[in-house]
Backbone:
């Protein structure tokens, strides 16, 4: 780990000026730890110091990645970036270091969505793809995702090798040796790649659906509006969220999982009497939505969108070798739908890396994915795609809504019919945050206490079955979380892998939606109280 004194040896005057402007407390805070390269890449605050995302740490990861590529004779990379502050700068740093190590780099000329980066990586037959993005995090964050040639986040072995390279590099020496390098051996990616990405799906039949779409000031604008135009859909966009705004002024937390992200689009939807509101996060891999219900609008959970996709695709596109992939923290109602529709269902650990790997594994056997999704608004609704992409998911939900409208129905009624057939499933998520210098230890101590002193009853619901994903043989890679079954109640307690936060996923099913919601919320509060007292 570097300290602020070692950074004084950096030759770049711009970074030295920012370093010298730090207070003593900021110097301590910014250098108190080193940013790590993990399974989902690297993400952090854009601050000067070894603990932040900045030119120095980005150059360090670029050199670590170059070393990995050269040692494995990998010679082609794609580099892309989102609309955040410094994203273009970081992308160019990454590209120039790769290119100056004799790696051919396809570099996006303009910011673009993560799904387009993945598509380009495969189209250009690149060995890896680099996406500069912090996804749906707040404005002061940025990050780097690395994907393999198939279009999946790199596997554990590659991650460990790049991480070792990263930790072995002296970041100050590396930056001084690379910061004056120029882009070399570059091929630019322009708008034609978007045309190639979208050309597979075009339908110009008459559409009457009223859509409000918001890209939340991110990268989704061109791709989503173009695919809607290609399919003759009309749409409205809130002006304040249409174009790039790295401050995310009207939506400080641009995550379409949450209702707050729809504040501006909801105003517009009421004005134009929209049937549907769709939102993509800043790197356009996640999709959230609200649907019209009577004279108001209802936010759908990621699971509820999954039910709609699953039922529609099963009824219209299922084949003998179709399969579905979701995660263990997604709704158990998916299990019931798949069973009734005679669909093979695979459940993986959380994160699209796991879902993508399982999907690719089954595709290699000749099976065909019908739907791949996670509860946090990530969906794959077409073949030969192994990471979440909001663009084609947005098109599919519009097609379903239009089909229903043509038959005098709505998405709200379609979802109600699913609940009528299978029972009403409440899906709740919450978390408990631990504070202080030993916050991670406190969190893990609570999980260990659940093993030593198991939960036997919660609010009158007797625990009938416990699955410990760290101890039990689940067929999945060992991970530190526990699942509880109690009749119509199921819940999962899972510590975050990156922050001192204990996550709770709760599912409760009842034929009466009012009863289900009341009971689920009551149990959740009791569960949080019990965990806080451990």
Residues:
């Amino acid at each position: 780990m570097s300290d602020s004194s070692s950074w004084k040896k950096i030759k770049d005057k711009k970074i030295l000026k920012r370093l010298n402007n730090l207070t003593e407390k900021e110097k301590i805070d910014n250098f108190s730890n080193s940013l790590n390269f993990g399974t989902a890449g690297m993400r952090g605050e854009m601050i000067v110091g070894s603990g932040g995302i900045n030119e120095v740490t980005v150059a360090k990861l670029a050199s670590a990645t170059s070393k990995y590529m050269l040692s494995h004779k990998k010679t082609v990379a794609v580099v892309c970036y989102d609309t955040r502050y410094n994203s273009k700068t970081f992308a160019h740093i990454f590209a120039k270091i790769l290119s100056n190590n004799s790696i051919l780099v396809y570099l996006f000329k303009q910011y673009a969505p993560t799904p387009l980066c993945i598509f380009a990586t495969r189209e250009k037959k690149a060995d890896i793809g680099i996406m500069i993005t912090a996804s749906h995090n707040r404005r002061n964050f940025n990050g780097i995702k690395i994907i393999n040639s198939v279009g999946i986040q790199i596997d554990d072995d590659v991650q460990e090798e790049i991480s070792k390279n990263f930790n072995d590099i002296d970041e100050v020496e590396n930056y001084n040796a690379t910061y004056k390098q120029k882009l070399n051996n570059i091929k630019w990616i322009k708008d034609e790649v978007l045309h190639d990405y979208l050309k597979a799906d075009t339908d110009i039949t008459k559409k009457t659906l009223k859509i409000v779409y918001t890209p939340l000031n991110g990268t989704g604008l061109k791709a989503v509006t173009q695919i809607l135009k290609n399919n003759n859909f009309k749409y409205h966009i809130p002006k304040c969220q249409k174009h790039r705004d790295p401050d995310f002024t009207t939506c400080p937390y641009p995550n379409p999982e949450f209702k707050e992200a729809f504040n501006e689009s909801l105003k517009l939807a009421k004005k134009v009497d929209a049937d549907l509101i769709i939102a993509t996060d800043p790197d356009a891999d996640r999709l959230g939505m609200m649907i019209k219900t009577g004279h108001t609008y209802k936010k759908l959970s990621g699971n509820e969108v999954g039910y709609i996709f699953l039922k529609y695709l099963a009824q219209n596109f299922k084949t003998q070798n179709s399969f579905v992939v979701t995660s263990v923290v997604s709704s158990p109602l998916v299990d019931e739908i798949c069973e009734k529709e005679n669909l093979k269902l695979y459940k993986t650990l959380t994160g699209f890396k796991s879902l993508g790997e399982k999907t690719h594994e089954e595709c290699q056997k000749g099976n065909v994915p019908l739907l791949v999704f996670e509860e946090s608004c990530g969906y794959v609704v077409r073949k030969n795609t192994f990471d979440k992409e909001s663009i084609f998911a947005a098109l599919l939900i519009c097609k379903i809504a239009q089909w229903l409208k043509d038959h005098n129905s709505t998405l709200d009624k379609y979802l109600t019919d699913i609940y009528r057939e299978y029972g009403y499933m409440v899906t709740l998520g919450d978390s408990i945050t631990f504070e202080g210098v030993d916050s991670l230890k406190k969190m893990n101590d609570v999980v260990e206490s659940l093993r030593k002193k198991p939960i036997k009853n919660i609010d009158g619901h007797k625990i009938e079955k416990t699955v410990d994903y760290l101890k039990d043989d689940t067929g999945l890679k060992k991970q530190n979380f526990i699942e509880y079954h109690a009749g119509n109640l199921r819940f999962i307690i899972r510590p975050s892998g990156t922050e001192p936060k204990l996550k709770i996923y709760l599912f409760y099913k009842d034929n009466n939606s009012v009863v289900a919601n009341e009971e689920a919320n009551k149990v959740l509060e009791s569960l949080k109280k019990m965990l806080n007292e451990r």
Notes: The first strand starts at residue 42 and ends at 45. Residues 67 and 94 are 13 Å apart (CA to CA).
